[in-house]
Amino acid sequence: MTNLEVKIGNITFKNPIIMASGTFGFGKEYNEIYDINKLGGISSKGLTLEKRTGNTGMRVWETPSGMMNSVGLENPGVQGFIDNELEFFKSLDTVKIVNLGGATLEDYVEGAKLLNDKEIDMIELNISCPNVKAGGMAFGIKDEVAREVVRAVRKVTTLPLIVKLSPNAEDIVSMAKVCEEEGADAVSLVNTFKAMAIDIKRRKPVFENVYAGLSGPAIKPIALRMVHEVSKNVSIPVIGMGGIMNANDVIEFIMAGASCVQLGTVNFINPRIGEQIINDLENFMIENNIKNIDEIKGVI
User: Fold this and answer.
1) What residues have CB less than 8 Å from 227, skipping those under 6 apart?
2) Domain ranges within the chain, ordered by starting residue
3) The one catalytic residue among 115, 125, 129, 161
């Protein structure tokens, strides 16, 4: 028998497959396609304290081996989630992670307070959000800014805390260490890369915000390197993501040191990919006489 279970702190995942924030909503639509209770976990659509309508203009743009998005964190707000989405979300038999962003330190703190006593399992802190008080620079670029927000949120919530790291950080290893020092239970990486596309006929950027987030298989080799570097330098679990398309990619991230992985862009290509990868991962372990995921974790 193979054992796909993974533990992060006192949370047990039935397998290492988590659906990434922003690519799976709150799970309702995908649950009509397959039984999403088979998944190890779901990270919710990214929430902010207040409801957001998102960006205008082009939101998604296909690129070679990937996609760019400038959705702008459209979401119902933390209270809107609690009022309208939590009932379904908490009914799921999988690890329930709420992704939380903010434009100010106060936004993060108030959002975390609202979620603290709700029936969810973990908070994933998205520090790639632009800090409006710092001229729009993301919280996850400079170590000391990240330290401030992780410390503040850790003080107001008893829920296990994952910090989602931006690949655009000045030093992602140093950033991960800061998060660990301030009480993060895990880090997840990488979020999208800052990128650009130009419409040569209009002679203008494709996106109204000029820059957008690049995801998909184009970023996988860089994401894999970052996961490897971070996992060698922190003692808390690492959740890997970035361009994962199949079970082989999952195994690479686990061998690089990840405890779990998140699937994002691939959900738009194959809505049943979560189910498929879990089956393929189990078959790989059987064929290679691997009894437990820990046997291959961090072997590189």
Assistant:
1) 189, 190, 238, 240, 242, 253, 256, 257, 258
2) 6-53+73-191+214-295
3) 129
